[in-house]
Amino acid sequence: MRPFELTVPATVDEAVASGHTFLAGGTTLVDLMKLDVVTPPRVADITALPLRGISTEDGLRIGALERMSDVAAHPGVPPAITRALTLSASQQLRNMATIGGNLMQRTRCGYFRDTTMPCNKRSPGSGCGAIGGTNRMHAVLGASRHCAATHASDLAVALVALDAELRITGPDGTRALPLTDFYRTPGDTPDIENDLRSGELITDVLVPHPEHAANSTYVKIRDRRSYEFALCSVAATLEVTGGVVAEARIAAGGVGTIPWRLPGVEAALRGEPATESSFAAAAEIAAHGAEPLAHNGFKVPLLKRTLVRALLDLTGGGER
Amino acid sequence: MDIALQINGTTEHLDIAPGVTLLDALREHLGITGPKKGCDRGQCGACTVHIGGRTALSCLTLAATVRDPVTTVEGLSTSDGLHPVQQAFADQDALQCGFCTPGQIMSAVAAAAQGIDDPDEVREFMSGNLCRCSAYPNIVAAVRRAGAEERRTDATV
């Protein structure tokens, strides 16, 4: 690891004024600093800042420094979020990693993590090793000719489905931003991954209507049964009245360069009977616009099937 | 920079660079070699310790950021003998080469304390601790035995 200066800001204002790289749980940042993928000259340990607490009084509010394991164990957290968290990483990592840090984690693309390889995200203009290389794990949705790295977070997929918002503090004050507007597809600038500006810090995650997610789930498909990133995942909420879908909220992970909300599928489900055949019909448009690479074409049918399985789980017809 | 760490009940003062991990502080600066350096990337679990009573990976933790007490495998046993989880690992033959064992035991202590007994749930809980010798069946048995022992002890207190 390259030498750096470690600071400990006493307040949020001091942290955002510092311009230093924020260190919370460290499970991404320390890892990438060891690999020389990121080399910040100054790092601010923000773990003592008062950004904790889980409140369910006016929607669900989660302090950005809450640990994944504590959020997963909270009774007021909807099933989709709990499942996304408990299917993430290992219990040690869930004890360390924070909610804000989880949303800011970097891709697991092997080319990004290997400084001997080209990567437009790590080193803009150096090329993409994955697009013409080994790309079984990569995105089929939202990629550009410069980058096809997937977003690695399970939690972000669930939060995108649940219309979550971020509360962000920066040098110019505080703002709120829907999570769907936070992440950016790579386009011509894969190094710019989100809307966070210099010095800004995520302070809270808000789910305005957790009651919409009373009947919700997160289904994660992976190469191993545990402790592995998603090949494909689906977060879904489903409200059924008289056997008919009244409302659905759906997002997919492991298939897109960002957590991938599926409004077309949601629209196709509304007003249809809550049956496997109408779920399968709606799922047909889930991968609309997909552009598979040499090795990841299997993710297109996998996305459709994962989606049907999630919806069946929510109507009592699924298998674990 | 000067830091103070509480390790296994003892306060240790160190002068280290900000980039020194808790794992390197323990092994290289304090001679506490129970936590092992397997992958050094947060993937194998051999470096697992408890920080503030919760499992954590010491290889991804900067020593200078640690404020809560740290327990390593060296801190489990007492003058009365092995910790029940250590004894269960010995009784169930839950190791071969032993390199991953200190990390396995630190996770197993947390599993037993949380009352995790279902074999699938034990495997899920222990998935962050890899064993290249693949002693997994016996590790699962040891975790379950230790948990049962803990519940039996609780019931007789």
From TrEMBL, chain A:
Name the UniProt record assigns to this protein: FAD binding domain-containing protein
Keywords assigned by UniProt, alphabetized: Oxidoreductase
Pfam family, one: FAD_binding_5
Keyword check for Oxidoreductase: yes
Domain FAD-binding PCMH-type: 1-212
From TrEMBL, chain B:
Protein name as it appears in the record: Xanthine dehydrogenase YagT iron-sulfur-binding subunit
Involved pathway(s): Alkaloid degradation; nicotine degradation
All copies of domain 2Fe-2S ferredoxin-type, residue ranges: 1-76
PANTHER family in UniProt: OXIDOREDUCTASE WITH IRON-SULFUR SUBUNIT, OXIDOREDUCTASE, IRON-SULPHUR BINDING SUBUNIT-RELATED-RELATED
Record Gene3D superfamilies: 3.10.20.30, [2Fe-2S]-binding domain
InterPro entries hit by this protein: 2Fe-2S-bd, 2Fe-2S-bd_dom_sf, 2Fe-2S_ferredoxin-like_sf, 2Fe-2S_ferredoxin-type, 2Fe2S_fd_BS, Aldehyde_Oxdr_Iron-Sulfur, Beta-grasp_dom_sf
Keywords, ordered alphabetically: 2Fe-2S, Iron, Iron-sulfur, Metal-binding, Oxidoreductase
A GO molecular function held by the record: 2 iron, 2 sulfur cluster binding
